[in-house]
Amino acid sequence: MLGFLLNLSGNSDPPAQSHVEKLLEPARNGDKQAREDLLRQYTPLVLRVGSQVSGRYLQIGRDEEVSVGLLALNEAIDRFDPVRGASFISFAEMVIKRRLIDYYRRHKGRGEIPLSELETEDEEGNLLQSVEQRTAIERYTQEQESDDRKHEILRYTKRLADFGIRFSELVEICPKHEDARERALEAARLVAFNPPFAQHMQSKRELPLKQLEERVGVSRKTLERQRKYIIAVALIMLEDFYHLKHYIAG
């Protein structure tokens, strides 16, 4: 199945701006729904970074670190400057980690000493870790991400089933030729990033074939043949499949 996911990217360029990143400007301009969508879609990032910093698995509603991380994510939304060239994910990771470290430094008396407390700083204030500490954190993070991917694939499998698609079909339905795959990816992007198209697909469990035919420039017959593939990719682009999105982006 991993081969299918890797083939999703092909050699095509990802969209210049992801669906989530397009929410940043309206969120900063007071759009409460856009901000809530960003916080929801990046909650897995908060959990991942929080687990890495604390050295243990975090759960929403149980661990205060999650609230600290979400506040940091909210701060990152306001402070992010795309002109500087860094990605929002990288910037948000930095802010979340810094705020969690500040949190632990304020609560040293609680008896819990996270891995981050064993860090030191160089003359410029950059965090340093021993090789053993970095290895332990990396191993924990890899195990956590592997577990997250498994749960995500299970959710994705159930979502595909809503559209009559089996996860085991994915290899078969992936277009074999690069040009065909590129056209199908273009169609999937149109569905994911065009709200009326996305609503049509999600409510009727089918593609808006007539509109796609006009926009993509391929025949309806071809779109029907690639229907399952287009839906499978559009679902990843549309919904909260954090790890699978990375495969699409190459």
Detail the topology: elements first, then pairings.
Layout: H1 2-7, H2 24-28, H3 32-41, H4 43-54, H5 64-79, H6 88-106, E1 120-121, E2 127-128, H7 131-161, H8 170-173, H9 178-193, H10 195-204, H11 209-216, H12 220-225, H13 227-238, H14 242-248
Antiparallel strand pairs: 1-2
Helix pairs in contact: 4-5, 4-6, 4-7, 5-6, 9-10, 9-13
Q: Quick recap of the structure?
A:
By secondary structure, this protein is mainly alpha-helical. 65% of the residues lie in helices and 2% in strands.
Summed up, the helix count is 14
The main sheet comes to: 2 strands, antiparallel
SSE order, one letter for each helix or strand: HHHHHHEEHHHHHHHH
Into which percent range does the helicity of residues fall? 55-70%
Outline, from the CA principal axes? elongated
Side by side, the strands of the main sheet go 1-2
As a whole number of angstroms, the C-alpha radius of gyration is 21 Å
Residue-averaged pLDDT: 77
SS-based class: mainly alpha
> What's the N-to-C terminus distance?
16 Å
What is the tally of beta strands?
A: 2
Low-pLDDT residue intervals, each spanning 5 or more residues:
1-17, 109-133
Per DSSP, what share of the residues sits in E-state strands of 2 or more residues? under 5%
